[in-house]
TrEMBL record:
It comes from the Bacteria. This is Catalase. CDD domains: PIOX_like. PROSITE patterns: PEROXIDASE_3. Keywords: Dioxygenase, Fatty acid biosynthesis, Fatty acid metabolism, Heme, Iron, Lipid biosynthesis, Lipid metabolism, Metal-binding, Oxidoreductase, Oxylipin biosynthesis, Peroxidase, Plant defense. InterPro entries: A_dioxygenase (IPR034815), Catalase_sf (IPR020835), Haem_peroxidase_animal (IPR019791), Haem_peroxidase_sf (IPR010255), Haem_peroxidase_sf_animal (IPR037120), Oxylipin_biosynth_metab (IPR050783). Residues 1-12 have a biased composition (Basic and acidic residues).
Length: 975
């Protein structure tokens, strides 16, 4: 495992640890009194600073994003030295600050502007120091050549940055300072900020070596309490002559000349905290005056004599210019204090990641903002009378876009435990180069600025606040609900789909979500049974009066309270983990044992383990449908490896493996987006919208115009955009899990036939296709025949009274469970709101009567008998009971979660956006994805099935059956 991955795992394991009170907090005051509120505020301000970076880039004509401030480096050296004074005061001897101690220092001097302008332009100057105490300890100090900040707090700081971004001419600067800034902060604050800026930037600076630099904000100095620090020139520093007006880089040249003659020396001093009035910690716009707090020398900084114009020195300067200095790169003894400093952590991390191409922000065009507001209000009125799916296609598509934008604002809730208030940390390690060009094994480093985001073990997010209702945990009894409303009396087919569609969605869900369970019998959920009913909870066990099944692991929230958050033991990304495995050990165990890039297959079939179940990335709940999908895409991976090896003979086996994984995972995502989903949601608006997600809009100019007005990504397709989390770190959600409970798709009985003759091969029940039996059936039937048999068969309709009987008495991991009861109980215990609250949480009108579900008289009567009132209807029951729109395979309410999350799964993933490019995938890989789909995969590995595939529909629509010419001779093939 890479060192960076180990650090990520360590950080993940300590995320929920209790936070001890931090030294120095007694001096601080958080916005609205809440560190968590302040953190959310700073996150928003950080995004706004990233927008400032983009605006500056646009105004300056630069090709890349630069620092929001201090963009132009004037001097960068790696060989400076900091030496503490021998007579360092006793109470300042803290941590690395020891008498006579000496440390190497990286130093960067710069102008303060975000524009790389001439040194003669009015501006502040800054210096950033990285004091290298040891391999695991460094301290960053950041200073400016004016004792106070123009901004008293983070909000003022960002407002100033927004007003002045890209102001590169005198008229623009005047407009920013006298018009834009007062609009943001008010006239009085703007006047004070202008005075501070004029005082700091208006002076002529002849040499960096003769300037004094102040921290502006406070920091802790151990038990000595808060200090501000400053760096002032040594007493013997000589003055420089007036600068040349014709030299735009005179400060760099002056320092180069000075260093060619001797060392440049500064004194590092501290000013002690006195009281909140004279030496405020929270207001960076107030100076700590010398008469109140004299500067105490503590160390000397020496930049040694050198020639900064050599190739070695220029290379060092480039390295220094690429560093990200942050005052939070320190230890608890020297924690930054105050509002400005607390904001710096979010701001500097975001700005640095943006500059390095690790984090992104996408401006929303004004036309989209206006259009979506107008559409949202208009459709809000129209939908009271006409739902979106009854509108003309173009209007229906715009209706969905407006709904999705509203849900992005309301229905994305971050559940990750966040750092509040911020904590010091070591300098973040460099990211392994390999992780820039391949998916990690456990989903880390997809977002390079937040490596843990979406990885294995992170919590499920929420689309609406969780609702804990312990008094209704078993009301109504979930077993009664199952028997009265879910139990399949007779099979109800979904005639627009084939059985491969049911296999596909389970294949996908195993890539996306998995709640960890306790081992059977160690920690269980108990459901009381209705009167007169008993249940054997283990195979061959005694009848009991309760139904028992393994409880899920939860994320601890508070002592004595049941968990409301749960971790995903798969990664949240669309990364093919069901095929490739969720961690490095599993992934490597699936590889060709001879060291090749291919997955291990035995004559085209997955090898089986000691339990008889095929060995692959995810083996739970195994049945024949999964055997088909896993085998098909393991073969596809090996085929892609072969063509990559032939096309790029110098590519090593490790690169071939990871490139093939990228290609196959993206192909799977494409198939789901533009083939499976339009098959189960068969409407023109959905088909256009999903193809626009992947390929951009159709050629119809009116549709293009509407999408251009409403959606900033619609004209390119998501793979042509930058990653966009829409303000909330990416994760799949508990509501997403709930709407993908599609077990009615599974039939109880299966017919197999020979694809060549149509001759029946026999019938089997679902129990005969599970676990170790699946591979036996597959090899006995033949891969092509099994695919054909699934292709001509229908799955079940996702509706009430159609839950598979086989799943209502299912043996799994040493338990006998009723999966329909488990589904109901899990949804309740995870705090997913019940159906009516689910509706209102998505902005849909609540139902007032059982009849409003439109489920028919008999079912409505059963609903009324089972539930006391409509507000108690379980979410899964309500979703199954709805009459779906014409062409839909599931309810419109379930579709709303899909509408929100489908594009999110693509837009958040850098390998499906900014890194969906030939440098990562290879040109052949991108071509493979562009020109292949499910039909191509099927024909590549079973070319004999080509004539049975639908002509005008996807591979998930019913196939053409072969009619047998004569009745079968003898009994069924299966023994």
């Amino acid at each position: 495992m890479h060192e960076t991955e180990q650090r990520v795992r360590s950080a993940r394991e300590t995320t929920t640890a209790p936070v001890a009170p931090r030294a120095g907090e007694r001096y601080e005051r958080y916005a609205c009194g809440s560190p968590e509120f302040e953190r959310r505020l700073f996150d928003r301000l950080a995004r706004e600073l990233m927008m400032v970076q983009l605006k500056t880039k646009k105004r300056s004509g630069a090709r890349t994003v630069d620092r929001a401030f201090y963009a132009k480096g004037l001097l960068g050296v790696e060989d400076a030295r900091l030496r503490f004074l021998p007579d360092l005061p006793e109470d300042l001897r803290v941590g690395f600050a020891r008498p006579g101690a000496e440390y190497p220092v990286i130093a960067r001097f710069s102008n303060a502007s975000g524009l790389r302008q001439a040194d003669s332009e009015p501006d502040l100057r800054g210096v950033a120091l990285r004091i290298q105490v040891g391999r695991e300890e460094a301290h960053d100090l950041i200073m400016t050549n004016h004792p106070v900040s123009h901004a008293g707090n983070a909000i003022e700081f960002v407002a100033f940055a927004q007003a002045t971004a890209g102001a590169d001419t005198a008229p623009r600067k005047a407009f920013a300072m006298f018009v834009k800034l007062p609009r943001k902060v008010g006239w009085a604050t703007a006047s004070r900020m202008r005075r501070n800026v004029r005082a700091g930037a208006g002076r002529e600076v002849r040499s960096l070596a003769t300037e004094t630099f102040w921290s502006q904000g406070a920091m802790l100095w151990g038990e000595a309490g808060p200090v501000r620090f400053l760096l002032r020139p040594a007493p013997d520093a000589f003055q420089a002559p007036p600068p040349s007006k014709s030299d735009p880089d005179h400060l760099s040249h002056e320092m180069a000349s000075r260093l060619s003659r001797g060392d440049v020396v500064f004194e590092l001093c501290v000013q002690r905290y006195r009281d909140p009035r004279r030496t405020p910690v929270e207001n960076a716009a107030v100076a700590w005056r010398e008469k109140d707090s004299p500067a105490i020398p503590v160390a000397t900084l020496t930049v040694p004599r050198q020639n900064v114009d050599t190739a070695t020195a220029r290379a060092a300067a480039r390295r220094v210019d690429g560093l990200a200095f942050d005052p939070w790169n320190t230890t608890d003894d020297f924690r930054p204090l105050g509002n400005i400093n607390r904001a710096r952590k979010a701001a500097y991390e975001a700005g640095s990641a943006h500059r390095r191409g690790h984090r992104f922000v996408t401006p929303v065009p004004r036309r989209n903002v206006i259009a979506v507001k107008v559409l949202d209000r208009g459709f809000g009125v129209l939908n009271r009378f006409v739902p979106w799916h009854r509108l003309p296609t173009g209007l229906g598509l715009l209706n969905l876009i407006a709904d999705r934008e509203r849900m992005r604002r309301r229905n994305l809730i971050d559940t990750e435990v966040r750092e509040a208030p911020p904590k010091p940390r070591p300098v973040p390690p460099l990211i392994d180069e390999e992780l820039l060009t391949r998916r990690s094994f456990d989903g880390t480093y997809n977002d390079l600025s937040e490596p843990v985001m979406g990885s294995l073990g992170t919590a499920f997010g929420r689309n609406m606040p969780p609702v804990r209702r312990p008094s209704l945990a078993n009301i109504p009894n979930p077993v009664t609900v199952s028997r009265q409303l879910l139990h399949r009396r007779e099979f109800i087919p979904a005639r627009t789909l084939n059985l491969l569609a049911a296999s596909w969605i389970q294949f996908q869900v195993h890539d996306w979500v998995n709640h960890k369970r306790y081992p059977a019998g160690t920690r269980s959920v108990e459901v009381p049974l209705p009167p007169g009913m008993t249940w054997a909870n283990v195979p061959g066990g005694p009848p009991e009066r309760v139904m028992r099944f393994a409880e899920n692991h939860g994320v601890p929230v508070a002592p004595g309270e049941p968990p409301i958050l749960f971790a995903n033991t798969a990664s949240h990304w669309w990364d093919g983990s069901e095929v490739y495995g969720g961690d490095e050990a599993v992934a490597r165990s699936l590889r060709d044992p001879d060291g090749g890039a291919e997955l291990d297959l035995e004559e085209g079939h997955l090898p089986t383990g000691p339990d008889g179940v095929p060995i692959t990335g995810f083996r739970d709940n195994w049945w024949l449908g999964l055997s088909l999908m896993h085998t098909l895409f393991a073969r596809e991976h090996n085929t892609v490896c072969g063509v990559l090896r032939a096309e790029y003979p110098r590519m090593d086996e490790e690169r071939i493996y990871h490139t093939a994984r990228l290609v196959v995972s993206a192909l799977i995502a494409k198939i789901h987006t533009v083939e499976w989903t339009p098959a189960i949601l068969a409407t023109e608006a959905i088909d256009i919208g999903l193809h626009a997600n992947w390929d951009g809009p159709p050629s119809n100019w009116l549709t293009q115009l509407g999408l251009w007005l409403a959606d900033r990504h619609a004209l390119t397709g998501i793979p042509g955009t930058l990653p966009d989390h829409h303000g909330v770190p990416y994760s799949l959600t508990e509501e997403f899990v709930t709407v993908y409970r599609m077990h009615p798709l599974i039939p109880d009985d299966y017919e197999f036939a020979d694809h060549r003759s149509g001759r029946p091969l026999g019938s089997l029940g679902f129990d005969d296709l599970q676990g170790s039996a699946s591979e036996t059936v597959l090899r006995q039937t033949g891969f092509a025949n099994a695919l054909y048999s699934f292709g001509i068969a229908h799955p079940g309709a996702i509706t009430l009274h159609n839950y598979p009987r086989s799943l209502q008495r299912l043996e799994r991991d040493g338990e006998v469970i009723d999966l329909s009861v488990v589904d109901l109980v899990r949804t309740r215990s995870r705090g997913v709101p019940r159906y009516n609250d689910f509706l209102s949480g998505l902005g849909k009108p609540r139902i007032r009567r059982f009849e409003d579900l439109g489920a028919g008289p008999e079912t409505t009567a059963r609903l009324r008998d089972v539930y006391r009132k409509v507000d108690d209807i379980d979410t899964m029951v309500g979703l199954f009971a709805e009459n779906p729109p014409q062409g839909f395979g599931f309810s419109d309410t379930a579709f709303r979660i899909f509408l929100l999350m489908a594009t999110r799964r693509l837009q958040s993933d850098r390998f499906l956006t900014v890194d969906f490019r030939p440098e990562i995938y290879t040109p052949l890989g991108l071509d493979w994805i562009a020109h292949n789909g499910m039909k191509d995969v099927l024909m590549r590995h079973c070319p004999e099935l080509a004539s049975f595939l639908p002509r005008e529909a996807s591979a998930f629509a019913p196939w053409r059956p072969t009619l047998p010419e004569e009745p079968p001779i003898g009994g069924p093939k299966f023994s």
